[in-house]
Structure prediction request, 1652 residues.
Amino acid sequence: MNELTELEVEDESARDAGSAPADNTIELVPRFKDQGYAADLVSRRRQWLEEQTDCRLDHVGACSIPSERMRGNIENPIGASQVPLGVAGPLLINGEHAQGTFYVPLATTEGVLVRSYERGMVTLTRAGGVVSRLALDENRICPVFVFEDVVEAHEFTQFIKDNLPVMRAEAEATTRHGKLIDIDCHQIGREVIANFRYFTGDAHGMNMIAKATDQACKWITQHSRARHFYSLSGYSSEKRASGVLLSGGKGKQVTAGALIPRNLVRTHLHTTPEQLCDMWHRTMIAQLSANVVGYNGQFANGLAAMFIACGQDVANVVNSSVGVTDFEVTERGDLYSSVTLPSLTVATVGGGTALGTARECLEMLGCAGAGQAPKLAEIVAATLLAGELSMGAAIASGEYVAAHETYGRNPPE
Amino acid sequence: MNELTELEVEDESARDAGSAPADNTIELVPRFKDQGYAADLVSRRRQWLEEQTDCRLDHVGACSIPSERMRGNIENPIGASQVPLGVAGPLLINGEHAQGTFYVPLATTEGVLVRSYERGMVTLTRAGGVVSRLALDENRICPVFVFEDVVEAHEFTQFIKDNLPVMRAEAEATTRHGKLIDIDCHQIGREVIANFRYFTGDAHGMNMIAKATDQACKWITQHSRARHFYSLSGYSSEKRASGVLLSGGKGKQVTAGALIPRNLVRTHLHTTPEQLCDMWHRTMIAQLSANVVGYNGQFANGLAAMFIACGQDVANVVNSSVGVTDFEVTERGDLYSSVTLPSLTVATVGGGTALGTARECLEMLGCAGAGQAPKLAEIVAATLLAGELSMGAAIASGEYVAAHETYGRNPPE
Amino acid sequence: MNELTELEVEDESARDAGSAPADNTIELVPRFKDQGYAADLVSRRRQWLEEQTDCRLDHVGACSIPSERMRGNIENPIGASQVPLGVAGPLLINGEHAQGTFYVPLATTEGVLVRSYERGMVTLTRAGGVVSRLALDENRICPVFVFEDVVEAHEFTQFIKDNLPVMRAEAEATTRHGKLIDIDCHQIGREVIANFRYFTGDAHGMNMIAKATDQACKWITQHSRARHFYSLSGYSSEKRASGVLLSGGKGKQVTAGALIPRNLVRTHLHTTPEQLCDMWHRTMIAQLSANVVGYNGQFANGLAAMFIACGQDVANVVNSSVGVTDFEVTERGDLYSSVTLPSLTVATVGGGTALGTARECLEMLGCAGAGQAPKLAEIVAATLLAGELSMGAAIASGEYVAAHETYGRNPPE
Amino acid sequence: MNELTELEVEDESARDAGSAPADNTIELVPRFKDQGYAADLVSRRRQWLEEQTDCRLDHVGACSIPSERMRGNIENPIGASQVPLGVAGPLLINGEHAQGTFYVPLATTEGVLVRSYERGMVTLTRAGGVVSRLALDENRICPVFVFEDVVEAHEFTQFIKDNLPVMRAEAEATTRHGKLIDIDCHQIGREVIANFRYFTGDAHGMNMIAKATDQACKWITQHSRARHFYSLSGYSSEKRASGVLLSGGKGKQVTAGALIPRNLVRTHLHTTPEQLCDMWHRTMIAQLSANVVGYNGQFANGLAAMFIACGQDVANVVNSSVGVTDFEVTERGDLYSSVTLPSLTVATVGGGTALGTARECLEMLGCAGAGQAPKLAEIVAATLLAGELSMGAAIASGEYVAAHETYGRNPPE
Prediction:
């Protein structure tokens, strides 16, 4: 049923092993020739699945992305998932890269979410807009090396410093866009975690820097005393939450802030700067008591909705949502509000950014293609600030539950 | 342009304020009558947006979900986002609730992801399948109360214990499905975080328990010395990563495990139990050094892909991905592998579970509707175990980069 | 040179092995007969050490604790370390257990520390004193059990619930004072961490509950499917910092608070309630960014100084210092300040509490002997509150560096 | 009763305020002239305290440190606390700075502690000794600056980079020994945490670098847009436990390791390398589940005992005990064991290092005075490794409880 290319190293044995009699009971997903991305093959796979699971997949099949364009983004394709898409705005941003008024696409099934962000955006826009700045723009991958003893491990950190130019040449030979900034070493016993820090342009970059680092690691194993290594260690905190994310280096570090006049806080957010700050103080203590990493209201909501809409890698919501929201009363009694995202992972090229609705949503923001990732980062930060204001105000004013009652109810079936 | 119901408390002022001359420059998103869910109004809103942003939204408009069905799931709808959908399997599960062979829908744009999970699933199925168990099934919301001093705060914790039945009656009067299990108090200075623990059936339940707790809080403010309260504090760790998640209580606590014979580890995963355990040891130290919450390889990947496919609240990937993967060599030289998800948030009713592709994907798993949430939880856990095996093996065997080179490349445009 | 009793299982081989020729170069510390606690043997050991290391140990020998009394507290004794002891006060406390005015002994070599605490104490006393309350009084030890698979591990948690009375009987048969409150199980894969929670009276209790739990574990291994167990797992967070400490259960959970009139904040602390709160806000964000567990200014300073003075187990400063300080401006413009110590480990019997200076310091506080541990806990909390006020004020007012310049300088030698 | 110098800024008001009639009830601790360090004044203060608290302080008075030498280390002195002192060894170290055989002084009241470390030391010495290396030697202090908005905060980080030489000159003008290595900025909203990193030689250095940084901050406030600053923020993690400590920079980062032949593990530790590694694996998962910062068995025990003995700042045990222990089975079946201390705070000059018993203990180790701090750091690391081996083995072999029964019992009174 399947035709395998010789590159499919990791599945070959699984399927070959299938020829044994005892495995006849195992029905593999049909892969078809050339991996099965042709429209008719996708359709046949979907039909096969409908039969296997005795269900209809009509909506799944109502996919407007040409199936051949999915190659490189998914395997065993059967169509597309649809997530309701709304729009919130206007959001006025005075960033370094994002300047002007934006309408932000948000894909979600959580009622009230779009309205909540919209309320914050209107407030911010009426207050004169959001300023936003990018402080750092890196990505990293952290292989781990093992040595004979702590002395060799100790000496390895010096070896890395001494040979940085060579390893940079090795790494950068594999990529047009990636630039190796530096390698930081962390010795734990007789192992060394090597933090390879890259600039990856407008791409997410994990595949790019995995390949580049693999090349450098091959050189290292030939020229150092490292006994063996693993290409990933999780130290980078890609798609996981950790304390080191708060110091940046995993993606874009971006800040957004706005001064909101006291009367706008009252008319648009139904609360006062003092109430918001009291709420900040109380919930900070509560989150601290739960040992939460970072502190914010609903970063994850806005990030998930924008990431799905804009073709980002949605699992990166986990690292991107580690950040800090701040509310302060100014001397004049106004509100200063800000969000800090130390580890935001966004891309405007590669991954899912060129596909159908994602491409359209990026174009809606003027962020499609090369050179737009910093702009997208600033828009994300400004959007999250809107959400923090709106949710914070709903909690401070006591309207949170009522708002969800109004917008979060499904119609009777 | 808009017709507002009297319940739209939180946005009214924002829009009313728009009548002032200085705000003429602010173009609000058209809401239309009855919130604008009718097909033609969604279409008009999309066209308005195309004009505002000078872009085409054809794919966004190619939405097969009836727009009226989106009410309660999104505001300002303009269509739907499409995310490529693949299928991985077969996955044999011997759970308490999930029993049989499953084909799992995964929505993602990350090449190699589906293949990676598929490899793990085939391995597990050939090994005899995955066992899975649910240990806890709760959700929580944690309002915070403020008092005159530490003595009043201290006495409040006793007050809550003494009046649990009354508060349970108040809370449960608002819901058919939610059951208040208990209330745990955490005093910090003169504030008390009250952890309201509920059983929420097959629903996500946050709206349900927010409303129920609000009712109980109103009783509390009338009968206790609490000076004021905030309905949410973030202590629950909804949609955020925290240390307390590891102790469970935010969603379903579920475990999945499998014994994999040594020769299957070699033929299907291209490594040995010893190598996998050595890799576990090294990367555990690395993640510990980054102060990661929990330890696993790629929980977030599988969760995001399943959550998008199955209409879950995708932002809950953040809390759900805090968990632990374990690999061990048994005395006979085989591999024992397991995953533990202390805080998995899944639902089979409410939220986005009834919409178009989501409903179809839940049906594909036999998990649509009431009574299926525990089954879905076990399938999620078994799926994640497959991903951990495959990714762990790719790192242990050194094939990780090659696999991404093979599957993660987009076709030339 | 040594006479070993048969109970010295763990060192016997080390010393026996010393008889081999190759080990003649290794000079063991003389243990002498009966472990060498007699005054002359301590003196001989000290002389032996002076010869080995070519130094004089006159101050070490100037020890007023009878050496025989050190049995059970130290091995290979050579005398005592002396730590400068100062006194701070008066500290007025209106606790449940501690009531009246106290003068607190603080052993330290950090200049300014005693003065800093004294300033806070005088301020608190003039403000009308500190209120303090004990919320929880437990200690715990957490063995870990290993099973065949996740199913057996899952069933074990039910087994523990079903057999709690039996295990309580087993555990409590070994101790007069310890009471087994409950056992909470945490399953991770195929292992289960069993959190044995005890009331330990006025003793530190780790030896007591280790012995009791060992007895219960023996019963468990005979009656359950557990394949093996380790008596300690570190989950209890004894002498380590962790997130779970913030939820209490490791020692005494105690809170202390005080309302300080605005003018006292100015005259005694040289700042304002607003400045203190602004400082709290800023440094909270900073500590959050460093991923600090808990939030406070100098809990560790006061704890270390009191623990050394009062014969506590000083290593417990690590878990005890995980706690939260809070400053708030009241509606009238005064300061409300509090400290919360969720995991304070203090004892008034056992350990070093009966020895020489420690006994005297406990008597100074009216805390020597049985029934006094809750009182000591409240005094510790009130003392820490004094330190938080003083240090917080020094940072808020900008006097921190000047204060250390004044008090932290050693005289010229 | 008191004579105050004009420098006693922080207490003056507290005492002056004491002249008001309402405060006559408050009995301040007698300070005496010249702060009361003369022997007779210390004695009079002790007598005053005995009368106030109705207790005898004979042991406290049995202090051999000349009271005048306590100036700069303590205020309101009344004598000294005595902590039982034992010695463990021999410990063979092959470090960069520490070379040879050491006998280590340990001050504690926890029975079995000295014996436990001794067992590990004998084992390590018989195995050929411990290697140890210092990777980093810094200390830091982290003031926080506040700005008008996020843009000014953003620009400040560049300002700091541009003006590093000036600030270095300002800072180093205040100290002979401190060297400003660099300043790292962390922007959170409109505030910036500035991490001032110093080399502080053999001193603890906090007073030194607080003064130096204060000087630099004065220059900053005059030349930048910073609206105000706080001299400390807690970001440095001095005397607190945090995630960033694992990356080093707070004190000395030091590693110690040893290869222990299989038969020595059996004869001296009563276990096997495999059992030790299994125990490591299980307890690692348990500590991870408790969200412990770092992973080790009893760092705090050894650190507290050495810090008290050697005149270190004992509160620094909190940051110093955040570290990692590792056990591995080598290919030959032997044990490789290591400890990593990323943030060890030790000094051989300043603080309490010159006082009485502390000086003698440092001399015992050949670590008294200038140039010895790196050596002391290596000895501490090697000592902790001994403790990890012994405690780990006691848990792995099941002898933990028996050992405490043997050594942890006080004699009947």
About this structure: The CA atoms of residues 134 and 278 of chain D lie 29 Å apart. The first helix of chain D runs from residue 9 to 16. Chain D touches chain C through 168 residues (CB under 8 Å).
